[in-house]
Amino acid sequence: MAENFIPMTVAEMVEAVTEAPIPFRITAFDGSATGPEDAEYSLEVTSLEGLSYIATAPGDLGLARAYISGGLKAHGEHPGHPYELFDSLRDLYDCVRRPEAAEMVDLVRSLRHLGALRIQPIPDVEQTSWWRKRLVQGLTRHSKERDKESVSAHYDISNEFYELFLGDSMTYTCAYYPSPEATLEEAQENKYRLIFEKLRLKSGDTLLDVGCGWGGMVRYAARRGVKAIGVTLSQEQYEWGRDKIAAEGLQDLAEVRCMDYRDVAESGFDGISAIGILEHIGVDNYSLYFGSLHEKLKPGGRMLNHCITYPDNNPRKAGAFIDRYIFPDGELSGSGTVQKHMQDAGFEVLHAENLRFDYQRTLHQWCVNLKQNWEAAVQLAGEPTARLWGLYMAGSEWGFEHNVVQLHQVLGVKLLEDGSRGDLPERMWWSV
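Above: the chain's sequence. Below: its structure in token form.
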């Protein structure tokens, strides 16, 4: 006669794969609970679907699916800025252990008994147009068509949604804080000032801004007499930037285009700014990227590349969660890799600096803005999308603080035929 099988509770499942004490109080839809009762934060597995997401995609992706869909809720933190959870999540990962063979058998049987091993539908927010098109048509990675779908998947939510947390600057890249007390808008303006000065631009010069976003750098340069062209693959960004240029009366000097940087016909630019585009290029394409931009500069022209980097030079994706939900096809490497490819393309690298703490502050302020505008964000984009952005930005803030990722600006010059730098000074000419 077969023994009577008593399925494990959700709490017992957690205990089977962790070493006590865990940093959370965990409760579940079946009424079970585990973890310290006085824990600062608690996690609630609210549904069988949430448990299924966690069981069928262990790790970041499963936890994210459960959290975004509401199958996993965190108590003690606002979903617009769940920053403090990440210290506890790191501690939770440290508590994970491999169950003994008998425990594993009981765990799998219990999950199967509950129906938690049944694959759940992918959350709608993950089913981007890019992901469907990739599956259906099999687009080549980093082809022009797939890059456009990838960028659209992230940026074409709605301009109104981004305005809620980016603020008046509508700039979705690391700001540069003149002081820790500066506002986000002051810091973003200061970032454009820094890049403008590093590129040593002046009235009458020409600038190409690749990956221009909503056109902040283009308008900054145009207001100072520089003829500036910006390109983006996002239709929403293009339309917003075009209208903003018209509203400020900058049409004679500023232009944004919805096009791939590889299709820009003009050349002979005095400066090129690339602010937050390299993350989308793919390390295997760095040579073509820097080579094509080197060709578009006049001799003596300068390029500044501003991008997220790793603390090491081992190129890799940022993980399943980021690839599925945030930056499809995104890939990072270290600042050394960036500088190597710039040098190989013909640039003399003049200066590099790490602004990771500035990005930490930037992300913190974006999260504060999202938290303050939470109801409007949910109304505009839906709660899953709002929860997704809160989770992503808070996790990124934590990552920059703890040196998981960095932010580097690298400045290079296209030398003249005789190997000189033209009229560039020998020493740093910009204000910090």
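The mean pLDDT is 92.
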